[in-house]
Write a sequence for this structure.
């Protein structure tokens, strides 16, 4: 466990703190973004996190849900969460307005290894919806563009309507020394990007050196295939990082729901080096 | 190491000594046809003469004419509910007229508790729960409050049930650690040994007599007999690699066809730690409670994640339970998660036997990985 987690021990790690929705943005028909501030100024000032960590958001009387943090800790004062409406709690969260209050506890888990990525070529691969964790890491690195080598950004969706942020990808295409590859399994009349079965789009990824690092986010099978493919192109397995997701309720490694084989995704993850999860990644039931 | 002998007639002195130091004394009593742990005040409440008969899917008590109070193996629960509460409120939320939220912890409640009759298997399980809950950056305060307010009187097990296999897991039948005071029951009374400072202090308050070499020899004989009486075994202390190599073994389908996925095994297991969190809102919608309660990996909800269930079948759930219990516990806490108490065998409505399943899985050569 890294040092920063130890410095943030609170008397009751389960107790949320109140936060206010400062701004609300509807990203798509089911995805919305909240810009949040802790109502206690001292709590807001003391709150610190790394890209890739997550919070438990509490909707009054309904319950908690784990959501990854998409804001940039060094560039944004507000805490930003992009939420997909998929279940009971997120359906309720969607109803909130600017000025409404919710509870937040966190941050939890281990974030992306951004320090390790410095000076290296970076490949970022995401599959389907739920790519918010990689959007935050892409923004983070683009703000510090000079610290990294070549960027390759790959987004694979099944249906074209799962591709919700075309303007972001268009903007990233303008970033120096950056390759953007977007593909859908099935195209449509207005689809301007690629059509690719499975992960074929990864064939276009160029690996220039074994000092390349890759960040993956998506379903387990997708990440497993992508990791194997990248390894065949010369990216060392230990330089491939995956964002894992399972049922998370306590977020502190106690409740047992997020166990993935030997590890607790909430505290040992959610970001893992590929060799740590490779054995069970594509086994049904883990 | 024996500190002395407590005559059976002086058992009340032990309960009184505990009662003077701790707000409640909990011990085994007979209720609803089972040995359960409840507050006691008198030695006469202990299950004198009661014996248990356990087999796969079977638990029965019968009363004999002997005076022994601990001549049984175990009941469905022992220490787990005392430290890891079956249900408890973690915090409360209040919303005022302006929509502002306030969060508060429930008042600290730690009743100092002495427990008489802890078994070696239950002490091994408690040690595992300590590793899971008590330490680290997220040390669990409610668990620790109760745990640290507890004084434990262990009693060596001399009457293992047919379902017991603690000798095979290395956890019993004699208590060797994790207690303050331990008793070895003989017909005429108890050999007493203290382990902690609190245990030594308590022992000094007891009317102990010197233990005789003959008494020690009889105690040793009973322990040897208790070991020899155990017929069930696990096929090894560390089955991690063997089980992970057999994730596609046909036995998983076989056991899933018998398993009801009822979760009894996880409820009676002294090491199962899974729990779910939930919320209850008052009728006025202003105040809400956030609680946790025991959960089971045999439920559909356990592996639910926005729209899909990771373990949708009983086969995958049983495999998760066993591969974790006997396998990946080694990665997490340096040993198997099974302490050989046999509760999951006795309390399974269809009598699934964890030792039989483990042997069936391991005896055949490794299958190809899925």
């Amino acid at each position: 466990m890294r040092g920063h987690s130890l410095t943030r021990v609170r008397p009751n790690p389960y107790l949320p703190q109140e936060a206010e929705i400062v701004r609300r943005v509807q990203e798509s028909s089911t995805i919305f973004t909240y810009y949040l501030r802790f109502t206690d100024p001292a709590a807001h000032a003391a709150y610190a996190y790394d890209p890739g960590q997550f919070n438990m958001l509490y909707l009054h009387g309904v319950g908690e849900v784990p959501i990854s943090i998409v804001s940039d800790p060094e560039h944004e004062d507000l805490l930003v969460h992009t939420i997909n409406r998929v279940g009971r709690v997120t359906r309720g969260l969607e109803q909130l307005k600017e000025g409404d209050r919710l509870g937040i506890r966190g941050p939890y888990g281990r974030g992306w290894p951004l320090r390790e990525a410095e000076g290296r070529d970076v490949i970022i691969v995401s599959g389907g919806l739920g790519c918010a964790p990689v959007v935050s890491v892409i923004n983070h690195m683009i703000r510090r563009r000079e610290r990294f080598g070549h960027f390759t950004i790959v987004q694979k969706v099944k249906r074209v309507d799962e591709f919700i942020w075309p303007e972001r990808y268009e903007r990233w295409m303008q970033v120096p020394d950056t390759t953007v590859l977007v593909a859908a399994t099935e195209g449509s009349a207005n689809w301007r990007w690629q059509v690719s079965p499975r992960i074929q789009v990864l064939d276009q990824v160029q690996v220039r050196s074994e000092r390349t690092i890759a960040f993956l986010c998506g379903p387990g099978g997708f990440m497993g295939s992508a990791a194997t493919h990248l390894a065949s192109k010369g990216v060392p397995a230990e330089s491939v990082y995956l964002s894992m997701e399972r049922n998370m309720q306590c977020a502190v490694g106690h409740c047992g729901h997020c166990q993935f084989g030997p590890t607790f995704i909430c505290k040992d993850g959610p970001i893992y080096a590929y060799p740590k999860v490779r054995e069970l990644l594509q086994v049904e039931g883990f | 190491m024996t500190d002395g002998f407590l005559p059976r007639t002086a058992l009340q002195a032990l309960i009184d000594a505990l009662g003077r130091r701790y707000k409640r004394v909990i011990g085994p009593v007979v209720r609803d046809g089972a040995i359960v742990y409840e507050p006691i005040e008198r030695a006469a409440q202990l299950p004198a003469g009661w014996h248990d008969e356990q087999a796969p899917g079977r638990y029965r008590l019968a009363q004999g004419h002997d005076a022994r109070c601990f001549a049984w193996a175990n009941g469905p629960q022992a220490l787990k509910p005392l430290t890891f509460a079956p249900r408890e409120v973690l915090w409360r939320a209040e919303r005022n007229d302006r929509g502002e939220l306030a969060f508060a912890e429930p008042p600290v409640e730690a009743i100092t508790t002495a427990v008489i009759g802890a078994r070696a298997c239950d002490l091994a399980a408690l040690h595992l729960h300590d590793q899971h809950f008590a330490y680290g950056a997220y040390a669990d305060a409610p668990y620790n409050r109760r745990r640290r307010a507890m004084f434990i009187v262990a009693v060596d097990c001399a009457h293992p049930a047919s379902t017991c296999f603690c000798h095979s897991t290395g956890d019993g039948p004699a208590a060797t650690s994790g207690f303050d005071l331990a008793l070895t029951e003989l017909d005429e009374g108890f050999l007493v040994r203290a382990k902690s400072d609190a245990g030594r202090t308590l022992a000094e308050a007891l009317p102990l007599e010197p233990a005789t070499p003959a008494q020690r020899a009889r105690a040793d004989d009973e322990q040897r007999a208790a070991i020899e009486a155990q017929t069930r075994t696990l096929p090894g202390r560390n089955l991690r690699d063997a089980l992970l190599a057999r994730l596609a073994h046909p036995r998983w389908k076989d056991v899933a066809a018998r398993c009801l996925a009822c979760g009894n095994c996880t409820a009676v297991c002294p090491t199962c730690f899974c729990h779910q969190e939930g919320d209850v809102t008052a009728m006025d919608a202003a105040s809400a409670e956030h609680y946790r309660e025991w959960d089971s990996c045999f439920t559909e909800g356990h592996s639910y994640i926005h729209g899909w269930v990771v373990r949708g079948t009983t086969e995958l759930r049983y495999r998760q339970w066993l591969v974790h219990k006997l396998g990946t516990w080694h990665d997490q806490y340096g040993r198997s998660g099974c302490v050989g108490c046999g509760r999951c065998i006795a309390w399974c409505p269809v009598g699934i036997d964890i030792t039989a399943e483990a042997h069936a899985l391991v005896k055949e050569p490794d299958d190809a990985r899925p």
